[in-house]
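Q: What structure does this chain adopt?
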Amino acid sequence: MNAKQNKLIRIPMPLRYLINLALILALWGVFTGLMGAGVITNYWSGILIMVGVNIILAVSLNIATGYLGQLPLGHAGFMAVGAYTGGIFIKSTPAADLLKAGNAAACLPYIIAALLLSAVVAGIFGLIIGIPALRLRGDYLAIITLGFGEIIRVVLTNIDSLLGFKFTFGAAGLKRIPKFSGFHLVFVCVVLSCMLIHMIMKSRHGRAILSIRENEIAAESVGINTTYYKTMAFVVSAMLAGVAGCLYAGYLGSLYPATFRFMKSIEILVMVVLGGMGSMLGSILSATVLTILPELLRSVADYRMVAYSLALVLMMIFRPKGLLGSYDFSMSRLLEKALNTLFHRNAKTEKGGGAQ
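A:
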């Protein structure tokens, strides 16, 4: 086989983005069509919204856990910060009246502002917590982030008595939040979150983060500022958790500090571990499965949590690396492989025919 036949087919980067965009639009069209036809009911539309929120939480935690190789246990705290920030902000705007009037277009700037504000405030908390916490490793990091997550929850519960006026409404909960989170908004946020993480991890910053996971001492020895990149990954993770919290507040319409207990952080961590540490597609699949599975098991309500827990135990026994391990699916890579296989098969056929 000559050099021309040995040359591999590569899909240009602009075409790769077009393929991904086409797949995203196709998926959005399928869901929209099914909801319009009534196949996906309002109940299951709500489940899909929660699937989207959990996907953002899982892929954001995967930055710190899967890509960076750390073990933070306070992710629910950043979600709570984002949820309360977005909820308090959107309540102070005319968004509720606009939504009641059916004027969603006029409400969109307030919704975007709420999402951005939630991300910024959660990112600030991530920076405040990350700078001292990321000097530690392993179990020590897990314990200190767990403590910060619980501090955030306790502050949300008791800050009103310190301020002297109603702000978070304590244990009674922040209620009457305008319900602005719909399927289309959550879908767009999921796509943008995954795209942001993909772009970061494919850049030199992402390679620096991965090098810290593989060997932090070796990364430092070649001039990588490990403190900077660990803090950056932690802050991006916190910001995306804040966005997920804002969407959560806009879906439920009420918030309670007890929702963001330690077990919420564990629930998000389970999604990451079950999908595979360092696999974005794994986090997406596990977040989808672990959100839908409890709903499918409602017919056996008495044994639902037993079956759910048993599924997790069996998964960890037979597939300890998670559903996908560290594998990430790429349609462009799959198309390249198929095209190269077909090209070389045709080349061999032509060569064989010429020899005859």
